[in-house]
Write a structure and sequence with these properties.
The chain is mainly beta. The chain has one domain: Neuraminidase, CATH 2.120.10.30. The protein has one helix and 30 strands. The strands form eight sheets. Strands 1-2-26-25-24-23 form a six-stranded mixed β-sheet, with no helix packed on it. A four-stranded antiparallel β-sheet has the order 4-30-29-28, with no helix packed on it. It has a four-stranded antiparallel β-sheet with strand order 5-6-7-8, with no helix packed on it. The relative contact order is 0.18.
Length: about 450
């Protein structure tokens, strides 16, 4: 259970009423966008471009892990005017990804407890009418997906750190009726262990993200067996070898786990995936590498293009060579794709959800300007002198295409430069248009709704 601190421990900024927060601020660009938690508040907008990258080692690499504090008494996350957050649950061991079943149930991966939890909320409320453990004895479960896509799935797929399993499912079930069936096994699971999954809109393709096994593949100075030239000719662009073989990738399978193939390479740690409703494109949010300085390299969200290489470990954000692999892969120079939306370095994006809203009545859910945008949970990192992240941001889209801007949406999880009470992980849009957010600092789940005047 959460232990509540006294009100005296709450900094003034944490309890400012949302109605007085800035609603429309100028976009911060370039170095001005490299702020920290003290400048974060709903409505702050940033636009970061590849040319804004500082040189590596422009600042020292910091080791600045946050101490986890109790959630202050009577506090809630800060939101834009008209929005409010209600607590669904607290004291959960390690709530991570949250996904919405077709009937509206919340499926939450409790990763360190090795459980998949279910919450059924009372209509229009954050109060659970029912809650249950759908399945246990999992292995660091993270990603969750329903198959086939649509209103009547027959299976719940769960991504463990080392496998994908599925459970037979009937709409409204609160407990698995049988044992899990292993669909994909032998997934490498050390170091980055968060495996997300998603289905293509037609249900024919199961996507899996597999993060790297190290920060920057230090052991890949050894050439692959048979030599680099032979490797390059026989493998996808940017494919890794040795202990990193099959990692830092997005993979694809048929729904039965067969016909495995690589979709894209060079994604150091795609911890969150989703399909954009407007286009059917697969999107990833990626934790980039550490130890190059406070603002290098940028984290990112991107549409994942078939056959694309995103740079890791040799390059980052396009044709920027990692100095720790200088001269190692000149054949890859100029071949790394530039991601679609760049975010501050070391903010640790973990999950992404699009706000579709097409099935909602016009006067429900979030205001119309949110529809088509995406929400990203930033978990926060140890590798920055003045911490950033620890918030949920909104990626701006226009006509289905990202503008590159992102905006602080849900903040207030940081207490001081040394302490935080919340670390956002999961984001999902409920069937009634509410935004569901998990955070694993104090093990809470939140329901965010809009009740202000509509535009």
């Amino acid at each position: 259970m959460i232990q509540f601190a006294s009100m005296a421990a709450i900094p003034v900024g944490l309890v400012i009423a949302s109605s007085v927060l800035a609603a429309d601020q100028p976009v911060l660009r370039g170095a001005a966008a490299f702020g920290d938690w003290r400048a974060d508040e709903p409505g702050v907008r940033r636009l970061i471009k590849p040319e804004d990258l500082p040189k590596p080692y422009a600042t020292k690499s910091a080791s600045n892990s946050a101490s986890l504090a109790d959630m202050p008494a009577d506090t809630k996350p800060r939101l834009p005017p008209g929005f409010s957050a209600e607590l669904i649950a607290s004291g959960i061991d390690n709530p991570r990804v949250v996904r919405i079943a077709p009937n509206g149930d919340l499926f939450v991966a409790d990763s360190e407890a090795n459980l998949l939890r279910v919450y059924r909320l009372a209509p229009g409320s954050a109060k659970p009418a029912e809650k249950s453990i759908f399945a246990g004895k999992l292995n660091q479960p993270y990603g969750v997906a329903f198959y086939p896509p649509g209103n009547d799935p027959q299976w719940v797929y769960v991504a463990n750190s080392d496998s994908i399993v599925r459970f037979a499912y009937r709409k409204g079930a609160l407990k698995a009726s049988g044992k899990p069936e292993t669909i994909v096994d032998n997934i490498p699971s050390n170091h980055h262990w968060t495996r997300d999954i998603a289905f293509s809109p037609d249900g024919k393709t199961l996507y899996l993200s597999v993060g790297s096994g190290s920060n920057v593949a230090e052991d890949m100075s050894r050439k692959p067996d048979g030599g680099l030239d032979a490797w390059v000719k026989s493998k996808p662009l940017g494919a890794t070898w040795g202990a990193e073989e099959g990692r830092a990738d997005v993979r694809a399978f048929d729904p039965d786990g067969k016909n495995g193939r690589i979709v894209a390479t060079g994604l150091r740690n795609c911890s969150g995936m989703t399909v954009q409703p407007a286009t059917g494109a697969l999107w990833c949010v990626v934790n980039e590498r550490d130890a190059l300085g406070d603002n290098v390299p940028f984290e990112y969200a991107t549409a994942v293009r078939q056959g694309a290489f995103y740079g890791w470990p040799w390059y980052y954000i396009g044709n920027n060579e990692d100095p720790r692999h200088k001269g190692a892969r000149p054949d890859l120079a100029g071949k790394a794709d530039i991601p679609d939306v760049l975010m501050q370095a070391h903010s640790a994006p973990l999950n992404i959800a699009f706000y579709d809203g097409k099935d909602l009545p016009a006067d429900t859910g979030f205001p119309k300007e949110y529809r088509g945008d995406a929400f990203v949970a930033l978990h926060g990192s140890w590798n920055r002198g003045n911490r950033t992240g620890y918030k949920v941001v909104r990626l701006k889209f226009k006509d289905g295409k990202p503008t590159g801007e992102y905006e602080d949406f849900m903040t207030g999880f940081v207490i001081s430069n040394g302490e935080v009470w919340g670390r956002p992980v999961g984001v999902a849009v409920a069937s009634d248009g509410a935004l569901i957010v998990t955070e694993d600092g104090n093990g809470t789940i939140w329901r965010v709704t809009y009740g202000g005047g509509r535009s």
